[in-house]
Amino acid sequence: MTTDTATSPGTRATDPGAEAPRHRSRVPRTYYLMLLPALALFTFFITLPALAGALFSLTNYVGFGDWEFVGINNYRVMFTDPKILSAYVFTIGFSVVTVIVVNVLAMLLALGLNAKIRLKTALRGVFFVPMVISGIVIAYVFNYLFSTSLPSIVQSLGVGGPLSQSILANEDLAWLSIVIVTAWQSIPMALIIYLAGLQAIPDEVYEAAALDGATPGKQFWAITLPLMAGYVVINTVLGVKNFLNAYDIIVGLTNGGPGTSTMSVAMSIFTGFNSGDYAYQMANAVIFFLVTVIVSVLQLLLIRRRGVQL
Amino acid sequence: MTAQPASTQTAATVPATREQEARRRRGGPRLRKDRGGPTNWPATLLLVLASLSVLVPLYFTLAMAFKTPEQAVQGTGFTWPWPMNWASFADAWTLTDFPRSFTISLLIAVGTVVGTLILSSMASYAIARNWDRKLFRWSYFYLLAAMFIPFPVVALPQVKLTAMLGIDGPVGVTVLHVMFQMSFSVLLYSAFLRSIPEEIEESARVDGASTWQVFWRIIFPLLAPMNATVGIFAFLASWNDFMMPSLITSDPTEQTLPVVQNIFQLAFATNYNIAFASYLMAMLPTIVVYVLAQRWIMEGVTRGAIK
Amino acid sequence: MDHSVSSVTPGSGLSRRTLFKALGVGALGVGSGGLAGCSGGLGDDTLRFLMNKPEVVGYFGELITAYNEQSGRPPVFFDSTPTSISAQFVRGVPPDLACYNYQYEASTYVNRDVLTDLRDTAPAQQIAPHVQELVSQFADEEHRFHVLPYSTAAAGVIYNVALFEDNGVEVPTTWSEVIQACQTFQDAGVVPIYGTYQEGWTMAQGIFDYCVGGMIDVAGFYARLREVGDEFEAGADYSFSVVMADAVARMTELAEFDNEDAAARGYSDGNLAFGQGQAAMYLQGPWALGEIEKVDPDLQVATFPLPMTDDPEDTKCRVNLDLGMWIPAQTPHREAAMDLLTYLFQPDIINTYNAENLYYSPLEDAPAQPDERVAGLQEYVDSGRFYQGPSTFIPPTIPLANYLQELLITGDPQAFLRKLDEDWRRLALRSA
């Protein structure tokens, strides 16, 4: 999640190995004791449930009572289940769109806040506020705005069209509301990263470019963006990781509806809790895990490549 | 961002790249502000407009919260009610059992922060100082792997596990929050620990301090800036979480502040004024803390973001 | 009532009790087990009795109070949180005694063998065999006694007597007469049927069950599907798309007569509107009668079973096991649970409950249901001309209610039935 992921810990081995000699000696037992609690708890609360879940994905377990192994039946069925497939399509599509929206807007805001403007501190303060508000709560607020305020404003303007009804009840548009609220909440973090990145660009670069007669637009494409590439990657990685798990905001806005049009993978997995689909949704979870790993590995490769340019 | 984050950095707070190091010696990065020239009014204006996207929903929450039930169902909801009706807050207070849900949220968040700080910093220290040992190196990657295991993947088994252990409530939520905060925190600590020269420890060791003492008396205090960063992230993640408590906690009376807000979607769907009063009460604690400690929080978050 | 969760009435008094009821629904679509105090809150010797049918929470509350006063045992904890019981089983903390709507979901508990066998208990001997048989219709070829019926509901079309008289409409006895009646109301500017699509369960237990149940052999259909098992093929002669085709076509025809804004209306809107005389007919069970009465105590309503063919002899009414009692096998309080169960099964208690709440007692020789609002169904109940709602056989993993919403708005019966077929095939494959 940081620029360091690009280079560490692999490169750590090549760091000036000041401590290497000391470790020839015996490692004090204290170090083991310091590491142990984290490892033990982590194994017990994350690794173990993950393995148990993977095991149960091969059964017809409903969460209680009798069960038996059914091989890869759950997986076979899953890949033909439109409810689950559409959850993946929705989740991945939503993540891609939201990542783009968040990055573009955060970059624009960062450039603006980095310019010579008035009210800088106040504006910055305002833009960061969404970061500290719970997603579910803000989703409930927007729920009212989308379902009641927006339609009544549109209606009073006398404009027809889809916006005169609640977009939350519109199968084609409901996902947009989720993008908007997710972006609202996620932009501050991306903005902070971009601001930090912009500040790391020395003024001299711009001064030189300005002397050469480069327009601000040109400066952005030729200087700012390439220098910010690493930060764009960070924001993308961070964003995708969060958006793939979309849940809170969807619950607050559409609860997966209308129909199942905004059902995310996380939501779909959680239904396994009370619909007798425990094992089936565990298979879904295993696939979701693989998808997450693949996406993350792709991104890490990207980072490594970018990392060189940083 | 102004000069503030960079200028308050000490050699210890940020393991710097060579470039940053060089810049610091020159007296900190120069700011756009320092670049003379006139105020960029169009940018100012656009940003002020853009800030409405944040302010309007907040204003709306405020306006709705002070309405009477009759006013709350009229029009678009944007009109400011006069006279203001304070009664909704009392209703929201009882309905969500605010003191209770607030306390539970706070305990979980504080517990998460403390647990994360202690577990992650100790583990990171052990790992950083024994990097050439396979076990520690592998542990690092093992702990980092949780980044690839989002909560939904392990949610169902964790529900069973916490129920089996009888911690299907705030305790279980706290433990799991700590677990899911671990990867990121270990990452931050490890990066930071590498910048702390070992000579500092050596002298203490010569004086006969044990590894344990060295960690708690020397290293942990030196980690202070990173503790702040890790703590802020852990607090925000835990305080604002909805997914985990809503699944793990079985007793509705032990739910957190964000989760109890859902009653207004179900039983009291039409009591908008009370719902918004309650939303406001759920938002305010973090907003107030943020406003009061803005500079400090931003510093910490920035450190986590770029480090 | 197939709506245990969906009908927390908005705007009801703001009490802590309602709050926690609401919170139980709470975990939002995932239904966290809202078991007030199972971990610590309750003493080890406290029995937790779960009954969360919203319309009769008050009634059972009094029964439990009366029981506590005379039992000489630690007081029973009455849990009325509207929550998913499956989630409680997943957590390993089911209630000690449950009195719960019996349909597919609850039949899982029988099939996964997590309930106590009650065959040899006294209450089991009093139950009329044909009612007990309803339990077995859900995938239980062994006819186990793990669930004892406590209350059956008979349901049909609730109608506004005055509107019928004013428009000269007789109670229809054939399908053509139904359509004719609807037409008459429509021409007279009266909403013929009040639909509440916003809450899917109202369609599942109403228009879907009435239309399909009135035309096909429900128990036989599902028995055949179980027999076919994972050999199930979409479009085969035993499949949804073949067996239910005519019924679903008639259903969409009937839905044409629903109020214009049905898509945006829910259960409480429906009760209110029908209570205010806004519509002639309302496809709801007896549970809605009490709610309608609250709107207008003087409104004269009655019930008739929906005829689906042109032979009056074919007409049947819908019944469901509104409440069934069971004791989880793992309870440490089996003996105490048995004591409470026996208490609640005393004829004067169970018969009174059913009589007063417009239901039918499962006991042999139970008195007839005296209320005239449901009297129109009595002869069908007595002569065994009833079916269990086909929707109650469909597991929650198949989102029937959502499909119905879609169907009634877009009106594509083929697509609807195809989805049921395909979902059923997937379910069969992985339960194999």
From TrEMBL, chain A:
Task: Mark the transmembrane ranges.
Answer: 31-64, 84-113, 125-146, 219-238, 278-303
The entry's localization annotation reads:
Cell membrane
The segment annotated Disordered runs over 1-22
Chief location bin: membrane
UniProt domain ABC transmembrane type-1: residue ranges: 88-299
Q: Would I find Membrane among this entry's keywords?
A: yes
Asked if Membrane is a keyword of the record, the answer is yes
Question: Biased-composition ranges for Polar residues?
Answer: 1-11
Please state what the protein is called.
Sugar ABC transporter permease
Q: Which organism is it from?
A: Ornithinimicrobium pekingense
UniProtKB/TrEMBL annotation, chain B:
Where is the stretch described as Disordered? Answer: 1-37
Query: Which InterPro entries does the annotation name?
Result: MetI-like (IPR000515), MetI-like_sf (IPR035906)
Q: Where in the cell is it found?
A: Cell membrane
Biased segments, Basic residues type? 23-33
Pfam families associated with the record:
BPD_transp_1
Keywords assigned = Cell membrane, Membrane, Transmembrane, Transmembrane helix, Transport
Its transmembrane ranges are 40-60, 102-128, 140-159, 171-193, 214-237, 274-293
**Bilayer disposition of the protein:** Multi-pass membrane protein
Q: What is its main location?
A: membrane
Sequence ranges assigned to domain ABC transmembrane type-1 in this UniProt record: 102-293
Per UniProt, the ranges with Low complexity bias are: 1-17
Q: Does the keyword Magnesium apply?
A: no
UniProt lists the family membership as follows: Belongs to the binding-protein-dependent transport system permease family.
Tell me the PANTHER family matching this sequence: ABC TRANSPORTER PERMEASE PROTEIN MG189-RELATED, ABC TRANSPORTER PERMEASE PROTEIN MG189-RELATED-RELATED
Specify the protein name. Answer: ABC transporter permease
Automatic annotation (TrEMBL), chain C:
Q: Would you say which domain of life the source belongs to? A: Bacteria
Pfam families, per this entry? Answer: SBP_bac_1
Q: Gene3D superfamilies per the record?
A: Periplasmic binding protein-like II
Q: Which InterPro entries match?
A: Bact_solute-bd_prot1, SBP
Which named protein is this? Carbohydrate-binding protein
Q: Which organism is it from?
A: Ornithinimicrobium pekingense
